[in-house]
Amino acid sequence: MNRCLTPEVARQLVGLEADPDIVERLETLAERSTEGELTTEERAEYETYVWAMDFVAILQAQARALLADSNGT
Predict the structure, then answer these.
(1) Angle CA(18)–CA(22)–CA(25) in degrees, nearest 5?
(2) pTM
(3) For residues 55, 56, 61 and 66, what is the CA-based torsion angle, rounded to 10 degrees?
(4) Do 53 and 61 touch, CB atoms closer than 8 A?
(5) Which of 6, 41, 43, 52 is the most exposed place for a label (fewest CB within 10 A)?
(6) CA–CA separation, 45 vs 39, rounded Å?
């Protein structure tokens, strides 16, 4: 992966933030999930958001590692 992850791309990945509307929707779904009130469709939507957030977090961790390595050498 590091072959296509340049320092510039890494910096952009590290700076990614979720859109405020998505954050609000995720909070709503999380509350409904905690209360056991999600519909089947909402559960699928919630799980998709969680999966995507995990994926982005992994990419950001790799980007931070690449940046730390390139700054240290």
Answers:
(1) 145
(2) 0.80
(3) 110
(4) no
(5) 41
(6) 10
Cα distance between residue 61 and residue 48, in whole Å: 20
| Tokens encoding 72 | 């240290």
H-assigned helices in 1-73: 7-14, 20-34, 40-72
Q: Are 66 and 8 in contact, with CB atoms under 8 Å apart?
A: no
Token pair recorded at residue 51 = 């999966």
Token representation of residue 4: 């296509």
pLDDT one-digit tens code per residue, 25-64? 999 999 999 999 999 999 999 999 999 999 999 999 999 9
- Which letter does DSSP use for residue 4 in this model? T
Is 46 within 8 Å of 30 (Cβ atoms)? yes
